[in-house]
# Entry
Amino acid sequence: MRLWRILGFLFTLAVGLGLGLYLGWGIMAAQPQNTTPDTLRADYQADYVLMVAEIYQHEGDVNAAAQRLALLGESPLRKVQEAILTAQQLGYAREDVETLARLFQALQTQPQIQPTVAP
Amino acid sequence: MTPDDLDNYPDEASSSQPPLYLLTGLVLGLLLGLFIARVLSPLRYMDTAPAMLSESYKATYRLLIAQAYQSNGNLERARLRLHLLDGDLAPQALASQAQQWLAEGNNLEAARALAELVAALAQPTPPSSSPAPPTPASGSLVSTVSLPTLGLGQAIATPTSTPSPTPTLTPWPTFTPRPSPTQRPALQAPFKLVDQRPLCENGVPAGLLQIYLTDNAGQPLAGVPITLFWSGGQNVFYTGLYPAISPGYADALLDPNLTYDVRPGDVGETVRGLQPPQCKAPDGQTFIGGWRLEFAQP
# Structure
């Protein structure tokens, strides 16, 4: 009888665990309509970085650019690196790749920038 | 819960008590599952599209598009980017955000950037004389690349992130010249007041000021600033935020206790001493109405 109780307890524990995971990852999970910029696909992220680079080219504020890039997570420099790679793979216009490169150089010369995330 | 604890439960065979240890196992498992799914390893979507961003991030994204447009003057690019974000509702979403930010007055520079893009989008698109030949460089926007566009709900959920390779030197793609910045409406052209009428219809908000601007050909003009002056202050709003009414339309609410001067553009004719009019309803009651002003370039 004791063994049956232990087995029954473990069985219902497993059932409850499965139910909890289903609720947490399925029903109660955040909807894909409420995502954050750091989850964007690589080509969308590259276009995001290009927008930041275009604004930087106009206003010349590298700190503001770093703050905008912080929404993509990780380090701004790395995000621009990835964007340049993606831009080259997708055949961006040369002028756009150069715009990205200028932002990359500006961020490289200011390694002390620690952007804060400001949604 | 130990095996000894389980023995303390009443024997289901010898009593009518429900098997509580089974219920306990179910509840414990449920709590454990929820803890894992919500705290230890929450679901995270990867490879999403801009349309899936939360509303606050969409607002940030729209501002970025507007500021990028201010920088490069490339309206078509801004239009494509907005379409990625809001689809066919992009102009309305942008106009709504611009209107809201202008009303709040927290970040006027940002609101102005949005308003300028709204106004530019409201301008009619000139027909292209000949189709441009496709070049590899024409795929500089994400909407035209070979990767498939994600639909809603097609995001890939994964708990891990992919490492990025280090950049390598590759040949430059071919250069494609970009369009020159879009010409903004001529703000220096003087506007003349051509019509001024009180708004006394039922349902008109008290103090409503409606402005309609047209150029010398009678076409509505978007993106023109309208300056309201009153004793101790001034405010600027723009035509073009309500393209559904008219690209040359703008409105504001006047305080019945103040007297205003209104000037369209930088050097337009200033209408002075404007106060919301007193209107009379059919039942004899009076109420505060509004004004409709029409300006045109001579």
Q: What stands out?
A: The mean pLDDT of chain A is 87.
